[in-house]
Structure formats: C-alpha cells, structure tokens
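User: Could you write out the 3D structure of this protein bound to succinic acid? I've included everything you need below.
Assistant: Certainly. Input first, then the structure.
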Amino acid sequence: MAAPGTSLTIAAMNTLTSSSASTLPRVAVLATGGTIAGAAPDATNTSGYQAGVVGVGQLLAAVPSLATVANVQAEQVASVDSKDMTLALWATLARRVNDLLASDTVDGIVITHGTDTLEETAYLLHLSVKSDKPVVLTAAMRPSSALSADGPLNLLNAVTVAGNAQAKGQGVLVAFNNRIHSARDVVKTSTYAVDAFQSPEMGALGWVQDGRVEFQRRVVRPHTTATPFSIDSIGAGWPAVDIIASYAGASRIAVDALVAAGVRGLVVAGTGNGSIHASVQTALADAAAKGVAIVRSSRVGSGHVMRNGAASDDALGFVTAGALNPYKARVLLMLALAAGHTTPVALQQVFDTY
Ligand code: SIN
C-alpha cells in the first residue's frame, strides 16, 4: 500500500482520446482508510476484516470507468479505521483540502473515509473548508474483498458528483449508495446495511446514478466560505469538548470529572427534546456557572431540540443544538469556541446559524 503522503496520478486511460480526457473535470481523491479500503481473508467475511489496509492506487484500479468521468489524481493521506480518527488528522486533512482547492489544477475533491465517523469529518469540513468547489466524502459498508463490495460504485459516484457543476457551492457532500447528502444532515443509521446513511427529517439532496447527477434541493444554511470558522484558528490546540448522555438512573459523576479535567464545553445527548435527568442537569448548571459551555442535543436520532424558555435554558445558561446530533454538535462547539464564541448567547447564535 502507498505510504501516507504518497501522491499518484491516474493517467486518463486508453478508453479516452486525449481531447476528451482534457475536457474532463480534475478530481483529487484523498484516501484516509476505512472499510472501503478494508480486506478480509475471504469474500464472505464482512465483519471480521481489517479496515484501511488497501492503498488508494488499488482502490482506483478496481474502477476503470473512473477514467471516463474525471482526470483523477490521488493521495494517501492516512490509513485509519475511522473509529480512531484524531483531531490532528482532521487538521491535516482540512489543510490538504484547502491547499488543493486553492490550486487551479483541481476542480473537486473526493475523500474516502470509514463510515463510523464520516458524518463528523464531513461536518467539520463543511464548516471549515474555504472554497466553493465540490468536496465529496464516500465510504463503504463492505470491505474491498467482499462479494458485492459497495466501495467501487460509491467511489465512482463520488467522483462523478465531485466533477459536476451542480455540486459547486453546496458545501461538503456525502455520496453513498446512489444518494447525495449534505454533510450537515447526514448520519449513519445502520451497523451493516449498504444503505447505511440517511438524512433524518431533511432527506437526501439528490441522487447519482449511471453518470447522471440530480439535486432535488439546495443547502440553505451557510457553510464553507460563508462561516467564520477556520482550521487555522485551531493553532493553539482544539478546545476540549466532551459528550455525555442522559438516561435512567444517570448521576453527576461524569460531568463533575470532566469539569475537574478542564473541559471547555459539554454536549449532552439528552432524552426526547434534549431533556436531562435532574442529577445531571444540576451538575451541568454548576458547570455552566463556572464558564463551561453546555449544549443540549438529543439521543433520539431525528427531530430538533428547541430552547425551553426563561425558566430553564435562559436561567441555566444552556444552548440548544437544533437538528445536530451530539457528535456534530461537538464539532460545531469546538470550532465556535476556537473562534472566540464563548457566551451562551453567542453560542446559541452560532447553533441557530450553522
Ligand atoms: C471505519 O469507520 O473505518 C470502519 C467501518 C467502516 O468504514 O464501515
């Protein structure tokens, strides 16, 4: 496998004339690992495989028709199982995306990623990439060695979307199982199905099939170039933000330990409309009084979390996450704190906007 940092240029292949190749969009594929780059000892094994062991050159070679949709260049940025995604790798990836998109030799980017934290990486980039060129994440639920592996078609579709003019200005997209989702809306909703990504409440933005791309709606909230967030503002280190959950019998132990450890923000995966067990809520109120940013989200999986009025959120200094799940709310809270938004009023404005 290519070592991280390796670049490859996949020459337009002999199915194309040089003139048709020169009119194709130029798409950079950045590989980070995941099941799409996974391999198992046999083709019927889709659970006991190793993620991130197949290099980007091999992934591209498995899809010869890529040469009919784009001039592809590729880089192995990392080779990780995305459960092990790090903040340092996020920064490396975001900077590489920004550098490539600033060049006039790249029209769009595809990032191959593990499915497990794809929605977090996608939203981070949606908020921090500084270009309106398409950035499309894709992945696979079955390793590359599997019968009916889904990675090759997902990769072809992602490159097709990244090279399509309609994808410009829509922020970061996820192309998966023929659907195109906004990074803000999309979540993983199945542990095994190839249709593992959905956009609850909102629905997909559109679809891609057999080279055709169709958007049914456009992204409304500001993103990429229209946000104040930048990966460069993270210079001194990411603000420490953790996630805790509310559930029957929950106690304040976790909140108190995290506050003692110095967290700057806590996202709570609450019940229902972000409601919180009384013991946890008291601890969170104490934390807010010490200046820790508290964001209420929901563990439900769809819907949004509304502010609950003067007697509660206003009095306690809590912020609500709207339709963002806890993991995405954490991404936004980290970027907002890094950008200097620290009061509940300023943070609520951020959550209501992005
Ligand atoms: C990962 O997230 O890297 C492994 C799981 C997957 O890609 O489906």
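Residues 33-35, 51, 81-83, 114-116, 139, 141 surround succinic acid (CB under 6 Å).
User: Perfect, thank you.
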